[in-house]
Design a protein that fits this description.
The chain is of the alpha/beta class. The chain contains 11 helices and 17 strands. The strands form 4 sheets. Strands 3, 4, 5, 8, 9, 16 and 17 form a 7-stranded mixed sheet that branches. Strands 12-11-10-13-14-15 form a 6-stranded parallel sheet, with helices on both faces. A two-stranded antiparallel sheet has the order 1-2. Helix 9 links the parallel strand 14 and strand 15. The two termini are 24 Å apart.
Amino acid sequence: MATESLPETHRALVLKSRDEPLVVEIRPLPRLTSGSAIVHNLNVKLVSYCREVWSGKRPYPFPTPMVPGGNCVARVAAVGPDATTLKKGQLVFVHNFIAGRDNPDELCLFGFTSGFSPGSNSMFENEWRDSTLAEYSRVPLENCIPLDETRLLGSPQQGGLGYTTDDLGYLQIPLVAYGGLIDIDLKPGETIVIAPATGQFGGAAVQVALAMGAGTIIAMGRNEEALKRVESLEPTRIKTLKMTGDWETELEALKAFGPIDAFFDISPPMAKDSSHYKSCISSLRRNGRASLMGGLGDLTVPAWAMVFGSLQLKAKWMYDRTDIAGFMRLVHGGLLKLGPSGGNEITGKFELEQWDEAFDMAAEKARMGQMALVIP
């Protein structure tokens, strides 16, 4: 493992307490261990609600102090002695959903939450406390997903897709949506309703459903202008429907689209009483499937429609490690479009010291494809 060119120190954004402003500190470089890599972070995409999590407004468990963060695009700076294929200098997508090696049911989100069990809390606190809002990070080897630079960054004239490394920062959002869509086995040609479909994760679900070959995508939302933007991705396959707050009205409108095979939801907590759950689940054909990925708390579902329709209702937190290979095939194959051609927009790029402005931008510009990037 070559580490001669690595600096002794680096800059990191530190969350000392939920009640204090974050600060940029000069810290020793993370220590390389077996099973890990040191990566030089190129960009970190902020999720829209990151300030709510790191300020404690959303009661996610995590210890302090810590370096917050999430998924990132990075270059491998050094690898542990047990690395078999990962090489120094390689471009990687680092995803932040960490599973315990001795028990894969113990799960945490690197830089976000220590999870919901003693095992995941221990793993986060003792080994993976410091995440990616820093110049360098120590990350699990298995969380480094190799990116084909020639294919992704190369010019279209030479068989490449013409993306930039900043375009690749978007990968974390559609990966989450893919976890739910593959969990209900969305098939080419099927009809799926995605509600709501105008936010970051719901919009990404529309993008992924297109890439997976869905025949018709019914995108629901309350903002008509935002729905038009979603529809513009591919008007022949994307149809829009405004949420009314009345489930029976919505159900009648959904029936006009014919048999609906699947329903996908990744609503925020404040949407738990929304009418669309009942209307969308009730609209499914016999043996239809529904995926719930939102952080909703307790939810009332139309049991009558589920029982007599023989419906399958599945819930999913994030994705499985085995899902990543299929997702990356969509990316490298050019089926999941990134950058402006995929409806994506970089709303701002910020240095670590501009964290407060970056958090605001992430919250304010949170429609489909929009991303605020921190460039450590």
